[in-house]
């Protein structure tokens, strides 16, 4: 996708209307925002919101996509924002740190003098293999923490990598 979003988008022309295609539309918007990508992202978020209603047993990719756009404070349809808030904190399968580690992350992130510690805790949670396989709720919390620390560019980069490595 790097600097070649138009070429990458051409691969998905005529793709089935499925989770993978909608996740790709969100990736395009995260990597290269434009009016066209923004419109496609809004459609994808609405699709995820519809498919991720809590009573429908939402997929981890839907929870991740909605949660990431929500914590990055990116435009979302009202229904998508509502579903993202409903799914917040919902446990999903995937790699998870000990609950104590998440508490320590929250404590460090809440104190400006501990910004470095909070960043190191995020890196420790994401681990050397990156966000692939991390539980969506944990990934969203790490992105939220980076945003809270003022590391917006890094939060977006983690969101891109997480969504790119998510598997339906």
Could you characterize what this model shows?
It is built from nine helices and no strands. By secondary structure, the chain is an all-alpha fold. Helix 3 (35-51) crosses helix 5 (78-87), helix 4 crosses helix 5 (78-87) and helix 8 (136-148) runs antiparallel to helix 9. The longest helix has 17 residues, at 35-51. It is globular. The model has no long low-confidence stretch (mean pLDDT 89).
How many E strands? 0
- Helicity range of the residues? 55-70%
Mean of all residue-level pLDDT scores: 89
H/I helix tally: 9
Biggest sheet details: none
Ranges where pLDDT stays below 50 over 5 or more residues in a row are none
Q: Which structural class should the secondary elements be placed in?
A: mainly alpha
What general outline do the C-alpha atoms trace? globular
Strand content range:
under 5%
* Gap between N and C termini: 19 Å
H-E string: HHHHHHHHH
Features:
168 residues; mainly alpha; 9 helices
Topology overview:
Blueprint: H1 5-10, H2 19-31, H3 35-51, H4 60-71, H5 78-87, H6 99-109, H7 115-126, H8 136-148, H9 152-165
Task: Briefly characterize the structure.
64% of the residues lie in helices and 0% in strands. The protein has helices at residues 5-10, 19-31, 35-51, 60-71, 78-87, 99-109, 115-126, 136-148, 152-165.
């Amino acid at each position: 996708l790097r600097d070649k979003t138009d070429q990458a988008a051409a691969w998905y022309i005529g793709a089935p209307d499925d989770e993978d295609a909608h996740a790709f539309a969100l990736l395009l918007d995260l990597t290269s925002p434009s009016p066209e990508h923004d419109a496609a992202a809004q459609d994808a978020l609405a699709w995820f919101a519809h498919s991720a209603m809590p009573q429908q047993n939402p997929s981890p990719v839907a929870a991740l996509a909605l949660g990431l756009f929500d914590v990055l404070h990116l435009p979302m349809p009202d229904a998508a924002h509502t579903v993202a808030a409903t799914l917040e904190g919902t446990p999903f399968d995937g790699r998870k740190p000990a609950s104590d580690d998440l508490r320590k992350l929250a404590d460090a992130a809440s104190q400006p003098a501990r910004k470095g510690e909070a960043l190191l805790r995020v890196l420790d949670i994401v681990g050397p293999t990156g966000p692939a396989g991390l539980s969506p709720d944990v990934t969203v919390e790490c992105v939220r923490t980076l945003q809270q620390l003022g590391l917006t560019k890094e939060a977006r980069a983690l969101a891109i990598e997480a969504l790119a490595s998510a598997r339906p």
